[in-house]
Amino acid sequence: MKSPIRVAVTGxxxxxxxxxxxxxxxxxxxxxxxxxxxQLIEIPVDKAMKALEGVAMELDDCAFxxxxxxxxxxxxxxxxxxxxxxxxxxxxPRGPGMERAELLKDNGKIFVGQGQAIDRNAAxxxxxxxxxxxxxxxxxxxxxxxxxxxxxxxxxxVRLDQNRAAAQxxxxxxxxxxxxxxxxxxxxxxxxxxxAFAHATINNRPxxxxxxxxxxxxxxxxxxxxxxxxxxxxxxxxxxxxSAANALVDHVQDLRxxxxxxxxxxxxxxxxxxxxxVWAGLPVKTAAPGDYEVVTGMDMDDFAQQKIATTNxxxxxxxxTVKEMLT
Length: 327
Ligand code: NAD
Ligand code: LMR
Known about the structure:
- It is a single chain.
- With 327 residues, the chain is of the alpha/beta class.
- It is 42% helix and 18% strand.
- The strands form four sheets. Strands 3-2-1-4-5-6 form a six-stranded parallel sheet. A three-stranded antiparallel sheet has the order 7-10-11.
- Strand 8 (185-186) and strand 9 (194-195) form a beta hairpin.
- 46% of the residues are buried.
């Protein structure tokens, strides 16, 4: 049996937490031979800590063989102590009619404190994934406050957008989703994101050739994927939770699996015209477990270049908004 890894989850008593923790504890995220210690972090408010105790009772009641122990805390120094993975979910979700960027001022500061706490307390090999919105810019803030870890260890989640794009393409082409490949998300986790459909394939044939309807790809497809989060909020009255937790399982699994190519928001080094040091969704190829390289050299036509310029401008604008949170 491997020795256990320590996994911190913030916002553990929230909606996403409730879908996520059971999948980590059952082995779906880190493998069925990997014991885990869950370090669950919530805000220091009775209601939240009480709810967290309830979730921990349910985790106990699942009798998961891989769940070695749990830490329940509202102290980030305790919660991030020696963690190998930090999954930063805790933050405010948007309500109907809001854009994710409107959360920046409130949520951004959470990532100042958490970046510093991870800097001081996490294990040397810690990897961080940011889910709390606006995820790309929160990740930039956290990474910026955490000088001890290399910024490549800080990623934000755009995998939900990739999964949404694959599902939409499969529906349109009347195929099973497993027949769709190579659909990657460029840019921000916001309506400006660009699902690069020209490189996607269905049964190894280019998507534009299979679907044929180029106006749909450029218009309705991009819009549906970009605004899917808002559509779910309008329908459910709450933001996506189970699909977000599922995407986080995919994100971490694929980062642990050499050879996988998948969409991850990572620090830009200028590839595809993104400003250096914004966190942009890009296709990455996992090298060794946890390490990755950005896949470069994909041709971008005028339409794609313009979409990338738009989402880059939004990321640069968000960085400007939070400049006082950067060191
Ligand atoms: P939620 O309100 O149900 O839960 C959030 C939890 O975080 C709450 O329990 C709250 O007490 C806790 N929290 C708040 N501040 C905290 C802090 N500083 N430390 C620890 N815990 C803290 O929300 P949710 O539906 O679980 O969504 C969480 C976040 O994830 C939101 O910002 C949402 O917009 C975002 N989200 C991102 C994606 C994505 O694809 N990147 C997808 C879905 C949701
Ligand atoms: C999503 O994409 O579902 C989440 O980011 C929640 C939201 O605010 O849209």
